[in-house]
Design goal:
The protein has 230 residues and is α/β, with parallel strands linked by helices. Helices cover 47% and strands 12% of the residues. It has 2 domains: 137 residues, Rossmann fold, CATH 3.40.50; 78 residues, DNA polymerase, domain 1. α1 packs across α2, α2 packs across α3 and α3 packs antiparallel against α4. It contains 9 helices and 6 strands, in the order βαααααβαβαβαββα. β4, α8 and β5 form a beta-alpha-beta unit. The protein has a 6-stranded parallel sheet with strand order 3-2-1-4-5-6, with helices on both faces. It binds magnesium ion (MG). The site of magnesium ion has 7 residues, from loops.
Length: 230
């Protein structure tokens, strides 16, 4: 049982409430297939990853930034060989990514049902505003949540600003999520508490060492949350 003065429980969305990362990995794989004449899958994906890192600061997260990154990578890889066939191939990959099937993760509904009414529940996600709000609506989970926060970057500053806006102290934040870099480390750094639920696939951009803290709890599944919080 976690002891604390939590007014809100914040949930990460992608790969905590619903499936996400597999769709991005599949898009990456299709990109490498499309350009397979130009290099190995590994080399092509490495270039795409570099372009993605360059494009996140100016353009943010989400599938539109992924499209810009694929175009940048393809232009670099193919040079003058870049043509409308490749452009439309990339556009198709991104369209399929943006409209992929929607899957809630196992145990999410029951867990939110059990916790709602006992805590104020909110979603704290990052990414493209339109994409994240659309997925939130589509999830049907909005009945459990007070509101959704779409943060630009999930940095310490972003969490502090969120706390100020909601008129809570940073130590009143309890964050639940799969990404150490976004959901755990910044929350711990500002004095909050975090529950880590690892997901089977982690985006390279999100990989970091787990910080040392007695305010971090790790569980295997979201289904273990009520046991920790009720
Ligand atoms: Mg996540």
């Amino acid at each position: 049982m976690i002891k604390g003065n939590f007014r809100y429980i914040f949930f990460d969305a992608d790969d905590t409430l619903w499936q996400n990362e597999e769709y991005f990995r599949e898009a990456e794989y299709r990109f490498a297939e499309l350009l397979s004449a130009y290099g190995s899958k590994e080399d092509l994906i490495n270039i795409l990853t570099e372009k993605q890192e360059d494009n996140i600061p100016p353009f943010g997260y989400g599938s539109k930034t992924f499209m810009i990154s694929m175009l940048d990578a393809a232009a670099e890889i193919c040079g003058n060989g870049f043509d409308t066939r490749l452009y439309h191939g990339i556009k198709k990959i991104i369209t399929d990514l943006a409209y992929h099937e929607f899957n809630l993760l196992d145990g999410v509904q029951e867990t939110l049902e059990a916790l709602s009414g006992k805590y104020i529940l909110a979603v704290a996600t990052k990414g493209d505003l339109v994409e994240q709000r659309t997925k939130y609506k589509e999830s049907g989970l909005d009945r459990f949540f007070h509101h959704i926060e779409v943060l630009p970057n999930k940095s310490e500053e972003d969490y502090l600003e969120m706390a100020r806006k909601l008129e809570i102290r940073p130590d009143e934040i309890l964050m639940v999520g799969n990404a150490i870099k976004s959901d755990i480390a910044p929350v711990i750094a500002i004095g909050g508490t975090a529950i880590h639920i690892p997901y089977e696939v982690t985006w390279v951009h999100e990989i970091m060492e787990m910080p040392e803290s007695d305010r971090i709890f790790e569980i295997k599944s979201i289904k273990d949350l009520p046991g920790l919080l009720l």
